């Protein structure tokens, strides 16, 4: 299982341990997204930074759309299907997305790829950046609902 993690809040009044955790997750700016596999270490990091991020399970269609539209390689060039064919053993983006979801391949293992996705702020805005998702806000674990948020941000 792979989580999509999006940073929602900024850096004002940030505690040092939360700041370090966000740096380790490579979430240095708001509206940045990373892919994170489900493990005990990542669960602990998500729990520490839960008041500044939102996360959930990403599906294959959204992941392939995210890679195609927002994936970048060094030199700030777009990640194309031709590059994926030449640099990896996968023939197209859909097979790559399925391999990433099944934890058979890591997105950061693509040569020269930037491991973050820079997203736009969501259309119609966040629900509220100071409340958890359970309390009708934008923070914390949101399960499959992360797909709706990221599709509004692409």
Please provide a written account of the structure.
The protein has 154 residues and is an alpha+beta fold. 34% of the residues lie in helices and 16% in strands. It folds into two domains: 2-59 and 117-153, 2-Layer Sandwich (Ribosomal Protein L30, Chain: A); 60-105, 3-methyladenine DNA Glycosylase II, Chain A, domain 3 (Orthogonal Bundle). The strands form two sheets. A five-stranded mixed beta sheet has the order 6-2-1-3-7, sandwiched between helices. β4 (72-73) and β5 (77-78) form a beta hairpin. α3 packs across α5. The two termini are 22 Å apart.
Structural class: alpha+beta
Span between N and C termini? 22 Å
* SSE string, helices as H and strands as E: EHEHEHEEHHEEH
Mean pLDDT: 92
The CATH class of the largest domain turns out to be Alpha Beta
How much of the residues is beta strand, in percent? Answer: 15-25%
Rg (C-alpha, Å): 15 Å
How helical, in percent, are the residues? 25-40%
CATH topology of the largest domain: Ribosomal Protein L30, Chain: A
Number of strands: 7
How would you sum up the major sheet?
A: 5 strands, mixed
Describe the secondary-structure layout.
Elements: E1 2-7, H1 16-24, E2 32-37, H2 40-48, E3 53-57, H3 60-70, E4 72-73, E5 77-78, H4 81-87, H5 93-101, E6 117-118, E7 140-141, H6 146-153
Parallel strand pairs: 3-7
Antiparallel strand pairs: 1-2, 1-3, 2-6, 4-5
Helix pairs in contact: 3-5
Sum up the structure in keywords.
single chain, 154 residues, alpha+beta, Ribosomal Protein L30, Chain: A, 3-methyladenine DNA Glycosylase II, Chain A, domain 3, 2 domains, 5-stranded mixed β-sheet, two-stranded antiparallel sheet, 6 helices, 34% helix
């Amino acid at each position: 299982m792979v989580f999509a993690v999006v940073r929602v809040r900024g850096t004002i009044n940030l505690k040092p341990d939360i700041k370090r955790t966000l740096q380790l997750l490579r979430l240095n700016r708001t509206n940045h997204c990373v892919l994170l596999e489900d493990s005990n270490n990542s669960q602990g990091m998500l729990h520490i930074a839960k008041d500044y991020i939102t996360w959930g399970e990403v599906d294959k269609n959204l992941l392939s759309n995210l890679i195609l539209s927002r994936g970048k390689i060094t030199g700030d060039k777009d990640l194309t299907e031709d590059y994926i064919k030449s640099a990896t053993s996968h023939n197209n983006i859909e097979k790559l997305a399925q391999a990433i979801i099944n934890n058979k391949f890591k997105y950061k293992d693509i040569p020269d790829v930037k491991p973050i996705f820079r997203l736009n702020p969501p259309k119609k805005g966040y629900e509220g950046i100071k409340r958890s998702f359970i309390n009708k806000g934008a923070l914390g674990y949101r399960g499959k609902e992360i797909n709706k948020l990221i599709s509004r941000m692409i």
